[in-house]
Each structure stands twice: as C-alpha cells, then as structure tokens.
Amino acid sequence: MSAVLDPTGHAAGHAADSHDHHHGPTGWRRWLYATNHKDIGTLYLMFSFTMLMVGGVLALLIRAELFQPGLQLVNPELFNQLTTMHGLIMVFGAIMPAFVGFANWMVPLQIGASDMAFARMNNFSFWLLVPAAIMLVAGFFMPGGAPAAGWTLYAPLTLQMGMSMDSSIFALHIMGASSIMGAINIIVTILNMRAPGMTLMKMPMFCWTWLITAYLLIAVMPVFAGAITMTLTDRHFGTSFFNPAGGGDPVMYQHIFWFFGHPEVYIMILPAFGIISQVVPAFARKKLFGYASMVYATSSIAILSFIVWAHHMFTTGMPVTGQLFFMYATMLISVPTAVKIFNWIATMWRGSMTFETPMLFAIGFIFVFAIGGFTGLIPAVAPIDTQIQDTYYIVAHFHYVLVAGSLFAMFAGAYYWLPKWTGFMYSERRGQIHFWWSMISFNITFFPMHFLGLAGMPRRYADYPMQFADFNMIVSIGAFGFGFAQVYFFLAVVLPAMRGRGVPAPQRPWDGAEGLEWEVPSPAPFHTFENPPKLDETATRVIG
Amino acid sequence: MKSIFKRLAHALMLAGAWAAGSAHAVNDLPGGPSVHQLNLTRGVTRIAEEQSNLHWMMLIICTVIFVAVFSVMFYSIWKHRRSQGAKAANFHESVTVEIVWTVVPFLIIVGMALPATKVLVAQKDTTNADLTIKTTGYQWKWGYDYIKGEGEGIGFISTLDPAQRAMSSSGDVSQAPDNYLFKVDNPLVVPVGKKIRIITTANDVIHSFMVPAFGIKQDAIPGFVRDTWFRADSVGDFYGQCAELCGKEHAYMPIHVKVVSAADYTAWVGGEMKKVAAKLDDPGKVWALEDILKRGEKVYGSNCAACHQANGKGAGPIKPLDGSAVVRNADHGVQIQIVLHGVANGAMPSWKALSDTDLAAVITYTKNAWSNKTGQLVQPAEIVAQRSK
Fold this sequence. Notes:
The structure holds two protein chains of two kinds.
Chain A: H1 11-16, H2 28-32, H3 37-65, H4 76-111, H5 119-138, H6 163-192, H7 205-236, H8 250-267, H9 270-284, H10 291-304, H11 320-348, H12 357-380, H13 382-388, H14 392-422, H15 428-454, H16 469-498
Helix pairs in contact in A: 3-4, 3-5, 3-16, 4-6, 4-14, 5-6, 6-7, 7-8, 7-9, 7-10, 9-11, 9-12, 9-14, 10-11, 11-12, 12-14, 12-15, 14-15, 15-16
Chain B: H1 2-20, H2 46-79, H3 95-123, E1 131-138, E2 141-148, E3 155-158, H4 162-170, E4 188-191, E5 196-202, E6 207-211, E7 216-220, E8 226-230, E9 236-240, E10 255-260, H5 262-279, H6 289-303, H7 305-308, H8 325-328, H9 332-341, H10 356-368, H11 380-387
Parallel strand pairs in B: 1-5, 4-10
Antiparallel strand pairs in B: 1-2, 2-3, 5-8, 6-7, 9-10
Helix pairs in contact in B: 2-3, 6-10, 9-11, 10-11
C-alpha cells in the first residue's frame, strides 16, 4: 500500500523500521493534524494540483473567448476577472505551493533529517493556504465580481475595484505569511538538521536551490505585503500612496511590486533548476559537471534578481540612465543562466543516457526553457521592449519560463520521485504520452503568441482586430490540448500510483540516481532517519 | 526571408483554416496589423526601423546560439545513449571550460548592448520638437490637445466607432471590416517629416499610448506627464491600441494617427479652427426640452452607454440610471455634482471635461429617458453655477 493513501500511515514503515512507534491520528485527522513532512508534502502537492486545475479552467475560458474575434462567451468585465484570477491562482496557488510540497517531501529525505524543523508551523503554513485560496476564488461570487486589475494589481485601477479586492488582498497576505513560514522552516531544516558528514557543498542541488529560494522569499514577500497593504489603506483609510487624486504616485506601486515581482520569478524557477540538476545526472549516469559553479550561478541569479525589477517598467518613462542600468543588469542575468544550461549539457555529454519520463521532461525543460530565456533577452533590450511591452510576446515569454520552465521541471520531479512517494512505478508508456502530448500542445499554444505580440496585439484584450484571428484560433486549440494533457496526467499517472496499481517500486528505481532518498525503502516509510545516518564520503550513501 | 516566413505561416494556417468556418476574407490593414504578421510592423520612423534592426540582430544571434548549443545536446542524446552501448565517462569540474563559457556569453551581451544603447538614447531625446501634442487617456477614449506648434489650441476626443463596439458585443464578426476595432471618430492628424512630441497623461487610471509603426509606446499616468516622440517619413494612416490594462473597455480605445503633407495639415488646421469657433456653444443659451434631449441622447451614447447601457439599467456594479432617485431628484445639483466630480473612487469618473451644454444635455436626457419621465430641464447656466461650488 502506498504511503500516500495508507490509512494507518505507517504500514510500510513497520516492515522497514522495526522501532517505529508512531501512533498518530487516522482518517481526516491524519491530514488536518498532520505534522509529518511527507503527509504535509502530499497535502501541498494535492492542493497545488487542485489550484492548477482551477487556474487552468480560467485559462481555458479566456482561450475560449479568444477563439474568435468578437465577444461570444463573456463580457469584458468578466474577461478581466478571468485573466487576473488566472495569474494570481497560478502564481500563488499552484506554482509556489507545489515547490513547497516538493521541498517538504524531499529536503528531509535528501539531507538525512527526520522531519522538518518546525512540524507544527509546517502544518499551519499549509492549512493557511486553504482558507486563503477559498477567499481568493470566492471573489467571483462577490458583488462586482473578482478583482479585474491584472495579477500585478496596478494602482490606481485597484482603487476602482469592488469588495473582492479587499478580500483578495487579505487572501494574498495569508498566502504570503504561509510562504514566509515555509521558507523559514526550509532554511532552519537545511542549516541545522543535515546528517553528520552532509556538508553544505555536498548537499543535493535541489536543497541548494531551495535554500536560496527560501532566502528570496523571506526578503521579498514582506515587500509585496507592503504594496498591497498600501493599496488597502488607499482604498479605505484615506491615504494617498498611489492615488494620484491625493498626490500619490502610481508608478511607485510598480516599483514596489516589481521589487517583489522579479525575485518572485526566480522563486518560481530556482527550485526547478534544482530538480533538473538532479534528474539529468541520474539518467546520464554521470556526475553533475560543475556542482560548485551551479551553486554559484544560482546564487548570482538570486542576487542579480534584486537589481533588474524595472525592466518590467521600460514604458513608464524612466530617465534614459535608469533604462540603461536596468537593460544592462537584465542582460547580465543571462550569463549565469547560460552557465546552468551549459552545465546540464556537459553533464549529458559522454554519459550513458536513457530516456524515461523524468529525463524526457528534463530535456524538454532545457530545450523549451532556453527558448523562454532567449525571448527574455530580447525584451531586455529596451528599444525592442518599446514595441513588445504589454503585448502577447511577453505572455509567450513568461509562459515559456513558467509553464515549460517550472511546470515541466515539476513533472520531471514528480515522475522521478513518484516511486519513492507511492511505492509504485508509474506506467512508462503513459508518462511518455503525457510528455509528448504536453510538449506539442504547449508549443502550439504559446509559440504563435510571439507572432501576435510582434504584430502588436496587446495582452489582456477581450477582443482583437480581425488580422489576429487565425493565430488566436491556433493558440486556443493548443490550450485545450494542453489542459486535457494535465487531466490525463492526474487520472492516468498519479491516481493509479496512489491507489497502488502498477509494479511495486524498488528502493532505487533509477540505477543512476544518487542521494539519500534512495537509501530508504519505497514507499518512503512514515518516519525516516530518526537517528542520524552515518554517511560515506560523498554523502550520498548510508553506511551504517 | 520574409517570403519564407509568409509561406510557412500559410502552411500553418491551412491547418487552422478548416476550423475557421466563417471564411470571411480579412485583408491587411495598411499602417496597422497584417494578416498572419510574423514580425514587427513595418516602421515609418527612423526609430521604428532601428528597433526592427535590433530585433533582427538579436533574433539572429539568439538563433545561432540556440542551434549551436542544442546541436551539441541532441548530438549527445543521439550518440551517448545507453542503448547505443555508451559507457558513462567520469569527468567533471573544469575551471578552464567554466571560465570560457562564462566569459563568452558576457562578451556577446556587451556586443548586443552597444547598438541598443545608441537607439535607446536617440529614442529618449524629445527635445526640439516641431509640434507638441498632449495625449490624455480617459476610460476609455483618448483626448488630444495641440499644445505648441502649428494648430495650437485644437483639442478633441477620439472614440471608437460605436458600431464596431456593438459588433464586438454581438459576437458576430462575419461582416467585420479590415479596420475592426481601429475606427475612431476623430483621428489624430500630424504633418509628415516633422518631429512630433507626444506628452502623455491620464485622467483616471494608467493607459498606454502605442503606435507600432512609429515605434512608440508610452504609459499615460494620471497625475504625471511623460513624453515620447516620432517623426513619420511617409503620409498615411497608422494604428495602435491602448497597451496598459485600464478597466473593462481596455480593448476598445484605439489610436488612429493620420500623417498628412504639410499643405494638407495647414488646411486641416484651418478647418478645425473654424469648427472650434462654430461649435463654441454659448453657455448662456436657453434651450427647449426637445432640442436639448436630442443632443443629450448623442452625448449619452458616446460617453455613458458603455457602462450604464443604452437602456439605462447599468450592469453588475454599475448603478442603473433608470428609476434612480439621484437622477429623478428635483434638486438638479445632486446629479450635476456627481457627473462633474465622479463618485466611488472614480468608478464613476469625473466628466467636468465635457462642455456645459453637453453636460446639461446629457443630464436632461437621463432625467427624461426610459421610465424617468420627470419633464425636468437642466440649462447650461446651472452647470456653470454648479461648477463653481
């Protein structure tokens, strides 16, 4: 029986671990009172997949409306609510919690710790998300509908929104608090609970990227909280931070928002880099080419992410010196990113590769993420950005890095660790169908958006000129294909594994995989590493 | 190169064409988007051409790097497979290699940044303009005021053709013209070959003034002024749209710029000045109910109906006017103050930019339209009086 749906929670644990003395609650209490990092990791992953589906439905409503010119399904008010909520839900409800879920499951297993450092705070940070998400989605049913100011919530448009704006701000505050708690937990766990011999520079890359991400989260989530709090006081308490009618500065909102927003982009991609850096060596059966340089590249990206924010604001009319600075700084980020891609390719070089689904998604990630990287370098050049800012080119770019980037990396990670989580092998054939289906429909969806953007189609448009019609139709068809691929993933891959259908997974299902998570049985027992393991020199094997 | 792309696009389109059904022939819009356009709009200013060149440069460099890097990867995927009997080598960490692949991208980026800097500096230089026009973003229309240069003093509002807006709502675009969502009542008119400085600002929320053929996009920010410039090399009609989310009618505030010869421009300015003089309403004029209602209906249609609807019922959070106590109030001051200054944080914006006569007309219209048969008549003089309160 799998660890995930195991009602007693430790059936497999007894077999593997004779002194398992866990007698935790069962049934729904097991999940509500969960303090076990594996249970909480599962909760996070389930929650974020649910939100992925909710956000996906909104995206498909958007694409259904844009299938043809003219308004056939929704009015422009609702359209703006859909784009806004799609963005907020995907960023704060799907991508961020999903990576926290991965961290909960894998960080203790990878560093040889028994659990996360703060078990009850872990529970709290997950369960905060649920009411916050409900409150966010409930905006659709409030008078005036959900917020319709775009996920960036630019002032002063936010000042015109109805009451759902306030409840959404509250929801985002709660989600921010949850993220900060999650980040603190991860930092403390990694810094204090590593098994003896697991030095920082022997730590798996996933832990490294999450450590850096967690610092980014702690640094910028309060900034975001500040921005939306000022919006709230502008709305209700007579302040004029951003309200031009009272002498406020709407551009200041953008500066504050993007000071959070750009590191946020890296919060959503650095853990993905970590997953890829584990999957590629496992299936190339060769060590990561430059471990140290990967750590340094990740750190440089994190540091640089704080000084590039205003490239989101080239058209606000900054002074020329400001634009030059942000243009140069932004272009500079491509150097450490290139180093990472070169590293992955050098790892593959002269390896002994096989192409199971995790590797397919990892290679797919590198390929498509590189496209997203280049389409990010192009708008970094400010004069070109004058043409493509706020057009579909930007929409294409950030979906290449967030969907093909973060989401594909999560799929790679999910297929890679699913045997460890559930104790069962997924169906390789179904995994490959999922990969090719996602890969092809993803590109059908997002590649034509580059053309639309270059031709000048602005984003967040409920209706568009006739000349844009055909590409929009192709995009919409691709979007539905991509959406159904993810339903297939859940029904045909995740669910069977959770229900225990399929071949039982061996302890180390991937012969090239290294790391402590493969030193415990599959599924991972409820409690692991209760006593600090003794590690070999490379800190990848338990020797007693 | 362009023709290859065109053909590629057409092949791609054939796949999608079966689904199109309606088979309504759409043509390119000169000065606006083309059908199946794959790259930037053809520029008619130096800056737009430079932007296009920069884009080609970036695209070529990026494509070359992409192809080179991924040839290596796919070669490796092909050759170094276990099924091909590949044995894993055991090399890692090479300082030389790592320095090389850090320094080379850095140098490439420096090479990209140099030409970009030149264009950026040129594009930000708004000095020595021949004509300065203030562009104001309203929810959801553009206001143009000629501030300095030939035509000084001209000012008008530019709104999307209501018929096209209605066509959008109907969802049936089978008869849509090529300039669907681009047709406005009053295009911005500028002379060819002159440096035009555009000052942007906004009345309510942030908008963005974009004309791809000129290579300009400048946010219009309430409470602040920003500027950009262009010098069009050829006459013609050029189109753009609002590029910053500004509320529900964001997709319906297009920009149409007519670039004309110097002589045509002078003639246009002359005509416009006469119209300004003729249109000037005497706010002291006393109107008869029937005349002012006709005018009010027009003002309502182009300013109010987008939110309050033609039937006055409003929609969602938008308050209905039909049956409203404020509208039916015999004390005209209540409604006049709301129309002048707006309410609900600008959800109902301020309309004080409209003329006294237009305001009197539209308020009279609402007081008498639908079921509001109050018979009340608001004269322009009352607006004048309320403005000073």
